[in-house]
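Schema walk-through. Below, the input block comes first and the output block second. Nothing else is stored per chain. Lengths vary across the set, and this one has 140 residues.
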Amino acid sequence: MIIDFNPGNEQCLHLIETLDGGIDIYGVDDTMDGMMAVRRAVDASLGRDSNPWCLISRKHGISDAVLEMFTPDQAKTYGLDESDENLDAAWEFWCIYSAYPKKVAFKENHIFAFSANSDNELLWHDLKNNSHKRLLDCIL
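--- output ---
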């Protein structure tokens, strides 16, 4: 089920630039909350089964270690419980790809590109995880 999502309502996403054609670029906090905000954007735009990038991909069976990182209220906010999907591997990738500030791009509030890199180079990744130097090359 695709749900409404407004990146402007996410505390971990910060509007950097607005381009023609309804495209907004947001900076993403390099935190677990930032990762979860990007995951919610993917859930809203593409559905819960979509895993376009390893940095936010799900696997079945969330671990106790991840659950312990959240208060019960936070876990409820993020929709996490023991039967939810495991984000442990995603968090490891999230931490590895930290050389360049993370960014995410939306067209009319629908996510279409993500920027993160282990090298100090700006690369955008489209929804098929293809790398591009130009954001507009990510539009399908």
